[in-house]
Amino acid sequence: MAFVAKSRFFAAVATALLMTAGAAQAAASCGKTSAGFEAWVQDYKQEAAAQGIGSRGINALDGVKYSTKTINADRNMKSFKYTLDKFMQVRGAQTIISRGRAQKAQNAALFDRIEQRYGVPAGPIIAIWGMETGFGSFLGNQNTLSAVATLAYDCRRPDYFRPHLNAALKLIDNGTLAPNAVGAMHGEIGQTQFLPLNVLRYGADGDGNGRIDMVRSKADALASTANFLVGHGWQRGAGYQPGQANFGAIAGWNAASVYQQAIAIIGQKIDGE
Question: What GO biological process, any one, is recorded here (predicted)?
Answer without folding.
Answer: peptidoglycan catabolic process
